[in-house]
Design a protein that fits this description.
By secondary structure, this protein is α/β, with parallel strands linked by helices. It contains eight helices and 13 strands. The strands form two sheets. A nine-stranded mixed β-sheet has the order 5-4-1-8-9-10-11-12-13, sandwiched between helices. The chain has a four-stranded mixed β-sheet with strand order 3-2-6-7. Strand 6 (92-98) and strand 7 (104-109) form a beta hairpin. Helix 5 (183-190) packs across helix 6 (195-205) and helix 7 (244-257) runs antiparallel to helix 8. The longest helix is centred in the C-terminal third of the chain and has 15 residues, at 262-276. The chain starts with 5 loop residues before the first strand and ends in a 17-residue tail after the last helix.
């Protein structure tokens, strides 16, 4: 029997990178040290991470008239793009500031990503089978309907609730099998000031959901089956943290589709994310499984 596939409802953005000495503040105008563009979006990055980690991936998304490069890149990575909708709306855009410490600050405009309706997503799930995975982030439209539709089809659901907007708390998170957040997102969603408290609150709110909280250089903490798992981050020389979280999610889910235990998949994901921060760029910084040692 073939391993489960991953149906990824995800954003496709043109990333504009601005390397700066410090993040711009209110009313400030600062010169950029350098500028460049890349193909990105949490959805695209996670599909590429999944593919490079060995998973079979179907991408569900939307592009504008400017979207051919996304199709070419995903196809070259072996991702099925038959469910990527073409629209007259320009593709999404992200403006990414990167400071000297390699940290980023990002502003995203949804563009075509915001045009997806529930029928588009359900059509994209048409060839899925019970036991496959459905992955989504919060950079496209119709997420609640997508989660409900995936659950009705018997899919396992992974939700990377990024960005965590106010309406996420009203999503049907009780249907989610695996919820992945960073510390800031976990705090916003649970109202807790630290990750351990967030795990406790999450266990009460969504008792059937595994909750993974990424903590950057301090590693990962996870609530699984009533137990708390912790994992230190792998050492890395941070150049650019863009796509590190997306790499983590992609390799984590790919590990689970290969039959790894969650604890084993977390190690794989953390190792891949550490490799990502050592290379500048978004999708271009994501490693291949074969390069991880």
């Amino acid at each position: 029997m073939s391993p489960p596939r991953v149906f990824n409802l995800g954003s496709l953005n043109l990333d504009v990178f601005l390397h700066v000495s410090e993040f711009v503040g209110p009313g400030e105008t600062l010169p950029a040290i350098s500028a460049r563009t890349d193909l990105g979006g949490k959805g695209l990055n996670q599909s590429i991470a999944l593919a490079r980690a060995g998973a079979k991936v179907h991408h569900i998304g939307a592009i504008g008239p400017d979207g051919d490069p996304f199709m070419e890149l995903l196809s070259a990575e072996g991702v099925n793009v038959s469910s990527v909708k073409r629209t007259t709306i320009p593709s999404g855009t992200a403006f990414i500031q990167i400071n000297k410490a390699g940290e980023n600050a990002i502003v995203v405009h949804a563009g075509a990503n915001g045009s997806l309706a529930a029928p588009d997503i359900l059509e994209g799930l048409g060839c899925s089978r019970p036991g496959d995975w459905f992955l989504c982030q919060n950079e496209t439209s119709s997420i609640p309907a997508a989660i409900e539709g995936a659950a009705a089809r018997g899919l396992y659901i992974c939700f990377n609730a990024a960005p965590t907007t106010e309406d996420v708390s009203r999503y049907p998170l009780e249907l989610v099998n695996l919820l992945v957040l960073n510390e800031d997102e976990a705090g916003r969603l649970t109202g807790s000031k630290n990750s351990r408290d967030a795990l406790s609150v999450g266990a009460k709110l969504w008792p059937a959901t595994d909750l993974v909280i990424t903590r950057g250089a301090r590693g990962v903490i996870c609530r699984h089956g009533g137990e708390t798992l912790t994992l230190d981050a792998f050492p890395a020389r941070s150049v650019d943290t863009t796509a590190a979280g997306d790499t983590f999610v992609g390799f984590l889910l790919a590990g689970l589709t290969r039959g790894l235990a969650l604890s084993e998949a977390l190690v794989l994901a953390a190792r891949a994310a550490a490799r990502t921060v050592e290379t500048p760029g978004a999708s271009s910084s994501i490693p291949h499984l074969s390069t991880l040692t």
